[in-house]
């Protein structure tokens, strides 16, 4: 029998165990060299097969597709397109990995189009049982038009079968497994006519290689009837990839089955616990509680530092700058206003740090899956979970994220209820009020009351969102349902760099997005608080001095009385006094009323507004924002303004009220109607008012 | 006097900024951009 030499090319995605297969096939018979002109390593090994066949096995660099964009990837294409290369393969072995078959098959379907006999190796089959994976090999062989060999290169399983398959490579059909040219029939027909003797897919690869490697020297052809612009070719490439994935999805729907309930690997075991109907929720709530505890505990010191730094800055400004209106604007308006937002950077940072870690580690996908079970009971789509969870950062991108919900009614309900989840703008309001009215004590020695309250507020927001969805579902008579598909990523240690980038970006967006508005509003508020229309405002000093002539008051006390009187008679005081009758049943004074009105633009303005108002009307002794709020006394009741009853009432008001113009604008845009944002505004605001009223009246 | 001018200038800037922010939103320059954040 005569000896026969054949070339076998090993091709596959990176990390599919291609080199292990190569080592198993060739043993120590290897040569390592470089492809000419580039520094990409090539390996050629020798393997003796049955029927006197000697195989040159070429281990090509790992590539994800034939749409190469890097030097090592182009090595693969150049070899496959050049029939004159002495290593041009007689047979190609595409190595795939059983856990990532879908991704790996893209390259396989492209290679099949080259009309070269191709064997599909499915590697790492020893993990099939661990992962609960089963394959319908006859079905896959029929649809992929290939010979499939199951291999475990680590455990030396299937190598002999692979050698046999290589030996009989001539029996394998070179027919393509899908008709990729259907993405643009006209274009490919023109190509076919222009180059009648060429393989259509090879032509396509040559043309697109030119697109991928723009710096190549190229000849201009006279006949340009078949040419397309680079952007058109790129779009066609994308269409080709989508078509291939559609084919792969259809094939794997039947050919691959993953039953996670019988999987025995660590990830599957962990998944079973984290998505368990009891333990899953318990673990989630423990993690949630841990996060809110830490937000309060760890932020304490930096928050105090920022608060007192801005107080000192304000004092320094008023002491060192020449006296006048502009100095007052800086010391009493701008600095306290900015301080009021920067003070919350530590808490915002910790919130995003934890959310980012949960997302990076892969746990968040499990939470989405876990919560989907609850969502469905309330008539929401599983896809609604993503907007509701991302609403904890900001309702605006969350509402935009509802676009992937196909069913209009489900999408509408999700848009309407998303603003009820606690966004980061509520955090400063919650933080300052909780700090004022909830004692910093521990329940059972471990549960911090302030952290617990914060967690309850998040849960109330989320609970109200799904309860509203349930009611809307009944009112709108929602009948149709959509399917929910979520891909569970592998668990991994969060990358420090990724986490930090997310934290910095989100915190920056919060500070600069809200900061500019707060700064501008602080300036306007300061002006309104420092000027008044009546004679009483201008003659405040005379009026108070004459009133206190007989009283034994210190100079500071008289100054405080003048400041308070001027504030009451200022524009902002008059505005606040006008709305006071409406808000006093909720336990709020006119100053809180002004803060509620100004924070209609954005919730976080609430703290900045109070900081500005109290700076204008406060004394210099209690110069931090929190101390000023803590000491504020209601002159009518002689009680502290921020007591337990009014504090809880305010917390509940902010939990439900629609205090965000931008959210209303986005709702209008997404629903293309004013009806829904107006409904949202009326419902949320009146509900917030009623709940806050009940809470205050019960607790006072 | 200078302090008063600076104060009124700052106030005017603040009001113009707020009016522009909430009543006259900037139109996107790039037609290919969707509604995503950071798309210029």
UniProtKB/TrEMBL annotation, chain A:
The chain crosses the membrane at residues 278-296, 329-358, 378-400, 412-439, 451-472, 509-529, 641-666, 678-699. GTP binds at residues 12-19, 37-41, 59-62, 123-126. CDD domains: FeoB. GO terms for cellular component: plasma membrane. The keyword Transcription does not apply. It is a multi-pass membrane protein. It holds the Pfam family FeoB_C. Gene3D superfamilies: P-loop containing nucleotide triphosphate hydrolases. The keyword GTP-binding applies. Mg(2+) binds at residues 23, 26-27. Keywords: Cell membrane, GTP-binding, Ion transport, Iron, Iron transport, Magnesium, Membrane, Metal-binding, Nucleotide-binding, Transmembrane, Transmembrane helix, Transport. One of its GO terms (molecular function) is metal ion binding. It is found in: Cell inner membrane; Cell membrane. Residues 5-172 form the FeoB-type G domain. InterPro entries: Fe2_transport_prot-B (IPR003373), Fe2_transport_prot_B_C (IPR011640), FeoB_GTPase (IPR050860), G_FEOB_dom (IPR030389), Gate_dom (IPR011642), GTP-bd (IPR006073), P-loop_NTPase (IPR027417). Belongs to the TRAFAC class TrmE-Era-EngA-EngB-Septin-like GTPase superfamily. FeoB GTPase (TC 9.A.8) family. Probable transporter of a GTP-driven Fe(2+) uptake system. This is Ferrous iron transport protein B. It comes from Flavobacterium alvei. The lineage of its organism: Bacteria, Pseudomonadati, Bacteroidota, Flavobacteriia, Flavobacteriales.
Automatic annotation (TrEMBL), chain B:
The keyword Transmembrane applies. This is FeoB-associated Cys-rich membrane protein. Keywords: Membrane, Transmembrane, Transmembrane helix. The chain crosses the membrane at residues 6-23. It comes from the Bacteria.
């Amino acid at each position: 029998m005569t000896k026969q030499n054949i070339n076998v090319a090993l091709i596959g995605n990176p990390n599919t165990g291609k080199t292990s297969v190569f080592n198993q096939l060739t043993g120590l018979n290897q040569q390592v060299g470089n492809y000419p002109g580039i520094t990409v390593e090539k390996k050629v090994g020798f393997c003796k097969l049955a029927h006197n066949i000697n195989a040159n096995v070429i281990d090509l660099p790992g590539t994800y597709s034939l749409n190469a964009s890097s030097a090592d990837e182009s090595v693969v294409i150049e070899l496959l397109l050049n029939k004159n290369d002495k290593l041009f393969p007689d047979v190609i072995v595409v190595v795939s990995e059983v856990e990532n078959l879908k991704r790996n098959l893209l390259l396989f379907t492209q290679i099949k189009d080259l009309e070269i006999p191709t064997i599909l190796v499915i590697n790492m089959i020893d993990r099939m049982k661990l992962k609960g994976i089963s394959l319908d090999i006859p079905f896959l062989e029929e649809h992929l038009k290939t010979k499939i060999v199951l291999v475990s290169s680590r455990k030396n399983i299937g190598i002999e079968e692979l050698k046999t398959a290589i030996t009989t490579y001539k029996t394998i059909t070179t027919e393509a497994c899908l008709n990729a040219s259907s993405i643009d029939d006209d274009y490919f027909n023109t190509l076919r006519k222009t180059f009648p003797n060429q393989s259509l897919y090879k032509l396509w690869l040559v043309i697109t290689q030119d697109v991928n490697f723009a710096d190549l020297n190229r000849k201009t052809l006279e006949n340009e009837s078949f040419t397309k612009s680079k952007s058109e070719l790129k779009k066609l490439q994308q269409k080709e990839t989508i078509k291939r994935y559609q084919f792969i999805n259809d094939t794997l729907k039947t050919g691959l089955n993953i039953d996670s309930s019988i999987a025995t690997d660590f990830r599957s075991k962990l998944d079973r616990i984290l998505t368990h109907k009891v333990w899953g929720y318990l673990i989630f709530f423990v993690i949630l509680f841990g996060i809110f505890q830490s937000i309060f505990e760890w932020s304490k010191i930096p928050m105090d530092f920022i608060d007192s730094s801005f107080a000192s800055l304000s004092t320094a400004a008023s002491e060192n700058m020449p006296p006048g209106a502009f100095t007052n604007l800086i010391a009493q308006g701008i600095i306290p206003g900015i301080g009021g937002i920067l003070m919350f950077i530590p808490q915002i940072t910790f919130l995003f740090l934890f959310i980012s870690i949960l997302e990076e580690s892969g746990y968040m996908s499990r939470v989405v899956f876990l919560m989907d079970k609850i969502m469905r009971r309330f008539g929401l789509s599983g896809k609604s979970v993503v907007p509701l969870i991302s609403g904890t950062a900001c309702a605006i991108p969350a509402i935009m994220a509802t676009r992937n919900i196909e069913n209009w009614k489900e999408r509408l309900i999700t848009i309407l209820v998303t603003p009820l989840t606690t966004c980061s703008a509520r955090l400063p309001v919650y933080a300052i009020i909780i700090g004022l009215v909830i004692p910093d004590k521990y329940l059972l020695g471990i549960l911090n009351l302030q952290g617990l309250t914060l967690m309850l507020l998040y849960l109330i927001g989320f609970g109200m969102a799904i309860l509203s969805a349930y009611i809307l579902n009944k009112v709108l008579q929602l009948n149709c349902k959509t399917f929910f598909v979520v891909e569970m990523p592998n668990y991994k240690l969060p990358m420090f760099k990724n986490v930090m980038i997310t934290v910095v970006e989100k915190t920056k967006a919060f500070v600069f997005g809200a900061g500019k508005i707060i700064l501008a509003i602080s300036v306007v508020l300061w002006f309104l608080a420092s000027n008044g229309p009546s004679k009483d405002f201008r003659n405040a000093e005379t009026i108070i001095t004459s009133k206190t002539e007989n009283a034994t008051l210190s100079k500071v006390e008289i100054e405080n009385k003048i400041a308070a009187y001027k504030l009451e008679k200022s524009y902002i005081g008059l505005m606040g006094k006008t709305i006071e009758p409406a808000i006093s049943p909720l336990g709020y004074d006119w100053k809180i009323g002004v803060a509620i009105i100004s924070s209609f633009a954005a919730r976080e303005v609430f703290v900045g507004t109070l900081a500005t108002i109290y700076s204008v009307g406060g004394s210099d002794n209690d110069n931090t924002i929190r101390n000023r709020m803590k000491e504020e006394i209601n002159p009518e009741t002689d009680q502290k303004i921020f007591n337990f009853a009014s504090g809880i009432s305010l917390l509940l008001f902010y939990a439900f009220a629609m205090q965000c113009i931008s959210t209303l604008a986005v709702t209008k845009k997404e629903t293309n109607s004013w009806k829904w944002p107006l409904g949202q505004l009326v419902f949320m605001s009146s509900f917030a008012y009623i709940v806050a009223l009940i809470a205050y009246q019960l607790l006072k | 006097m200078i302090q008063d001018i600076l104060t009124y200038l700052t106030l005017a800037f603040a009001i113009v900024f707020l009016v522009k922010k909430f009543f006259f939103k900037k139109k996107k320059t790039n037609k290919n951009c969707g509604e995503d954040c950071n798309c210029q």
